[in-house]
Design goal:
With 263 residues, this protein is an alpha+beta fold. It has nine helices and six strands. It is elongated, with a radius of gyration of 32 Å. A hairpin with a 2-residue loop joins strand 2 and strand 3 (191-197). A six-stranded antiparallel sheet has the order 1-2-3-5-4-6, sandwiched between helices.
Length: 263
């Protein structure tokens, strides 16, 4: 004890002050660490947005009628939203690691960004698989419909009573390429078409192929003024009608059914 006190006195520094040098210094976060933390936090936010978009996407795929209140919530928009925000989040995670690897290892923000990216991509891929297997969705709302599907004559009469007479008459279309279709006819003025299916099961399976054919034809004749317009489809359990928005809305008042955009 005397030796320790003697040495402390000899040094001219009180013992209490000597111990004070062992106190931890104030933490200082270098600029690169702060930048990495900010990038990691932003990546986490973008990853969360990507997850939200992917959840909306798979919800829209499973139950199409659940998100009908906005055209912005179309399948293609939600799909692109999920992928774009996932890519942006990935870029920021990589940038944060390059900026300061230690900051990323010590914090969880970068990790949450990566988790968000993985979840968003998995959910989106699942949504795409479900969309391919069930083009019209898994859960469909009960729709009141009064379409006269008993014959082509009653179908034509029902359409004309809502949108006006078909100038030039109706033309029959071949259904051989689409098993499950029973009738398909086209009117050039006003430009409308309808198809009927054997039963609701075949309608669920073949409706996607019919919609895809309609989209391909509109794209093929996009330079033709008659092909330009705001097109819609009106869907029932065993039928589908294609036409311009105004005519489809008129027909819906008579027949019921669900209106879909042509993507």
């Amino acid at each position: 004890m005397r030796d320790e006190q003697g040495r402390a006195s000899a040094s001219g520094v009180p013992q209490e002050q000597q111990y004070s040098y062992n106190e931890p210094e104030s933490e200082y976060e270098p600029p690169r660490s702060r930048a990495a933390s900010a990038l990691g936090a932003t990546a986490a936010v973008l990853g969360l947005i990507a997850v939200i978009c992917s959840l909306l996407f798979i919800t829209r795929t499973i139950a199409p009628a659940s998100l009908k209140f906005s055209d912005a919530l179309s399948l293609s928009n939600l799909e692109w939203c999920s992928f774009v925000f996932s890519i942006l989040a990935l870029i920021l995670v990589i940038a944060a690691k390059i900026s300061h690897r230690r900051a990323m290892e010590d914090g969880r923000r970068g990790t949450w960004g990566i988790i968000g990216i993985i979840l968003a991509l998995l959910i989106t891929v699942c949504g795409l698989l479900i969309g391919n297997l069930f083009p019209q969705g898994v859960i469909q709302p009960s729709v009141s419909e009064n379409a006269p599907v008993s014959s082509s004559k009653t179908m034509r009469k029902g359409i004309e009573s809502s949108v006006g007479s078909c100038t030039g008459g109706w033309q029959s279309l071949s259904t051989s390429s689409y098993p499950g279709l029973t009738l398909a006819e086209l009117c050039k003025d006003p430009r409308m078409a309808y198809v009927t299916f054997e039963n609701p099961t075949m309608a669920s399976l073949e409706r996607g192929a019919v919609n895809s054919k309609i989209s391909d034809m509109l794209e093929e004749y996009s330079d033709n003024g008659k092909a330009q317009g705001d097109w819609r489809t009106l869907n029932g359990k065993t039928w589908l009608v294609f036409g311009e928005k105004a005519n489809i809305e008129k027909l819906q008042k008579s027949w019921g059914g669900t209106i879909d955009t042509v993507e």
